[in-house]
Amino acid sequence: MGDSSDEEYLHAEWVPYSERADWGDVTPLPQDDGPNPVVAISYRPKFREVFDYMRAIIARGEKSQRALDLTTEALRLNPANYTVWQYRRDILRELDANLQHELDYLEEVIGQNAKNYQVWHHRRVIVEMMNNAQFELELTQNALDNDGNAKNYHAWQHRQWAIRTFNLYDDELDFVDRLICEDPRNNSAWNQRFFVVKHFGFTPEVIERELAYAMDRIRVIKNNESPWNYLVGVLRQSKSGQLNSNSAVVAFSEGLYNAGNRSPYLMAFLIDLYQEQALQDPSAGEAAQKVNTMCLDMANKHDVIRRKYWEYVANHLKILLSKPSQTEQT
Question: pTM (2 decimals)?
Fold first, then answer.
């Protein structure tokens, strides 16, 4: 974010620091781009002045209320400036400032810069300093609920950090379920569900529950990658870790295929499942034949953009099956 509000420089309410009596003891420190900069950036007057004074304050190591106010103005012009955020934290510590006020300030900044890593990092440090995350779930929920932010990586990372650090798991499944109901393709919400369920533990009962949950969502939208990925992830948590470890899932996926569904995600799942079956029992050629047939269909009809990959999968399985087993070698 640049100095889009630089028009304020021309307004009477904004007084340049060089004209402020209480800043007369500070000599601004211009940016040093060297004698022959490759690309000289033409900063606007307000931006240049604020950061010239910011550099001067940092150089002299001043940590005061006016320095804190200056960081606020600098961050309004460039909220991605790591150095200013770091110095702001140093000032807050030095002044033993009211950190609740800082959280209030950050809520406003995040509302305008929800995909800015530096803002979220600063928020985390402040919460750690307070050792209190009581506002973080609401904050991240608001950030995710805003238009276009439902998959905001930074908001999700911050939410997971807060939940993990302060043990805030209890109501998270309900929150995630709401997001999935609103948008079944929200892969971030599916990932969050896995994160929460893994914390509580993938017991046999939980695995059955989560598999049923995923299959229910697939029934609604069969060509939806997110629940298929989730289904695989949950199956891998079973004792055997095999895709064919649950007969209900096998029957469900084969039923969809036999009914004529050709979702590439369904077919990719079945290819992986039949590969496992073929490698577990090389003498039974039916599973290997299914892999070959489906890979050809994927390469030529349903996932043409990855044609080379599906040809590789089919050929690689043939190579593996052609190798003598350990029993035959001995």
Answer: 0.88
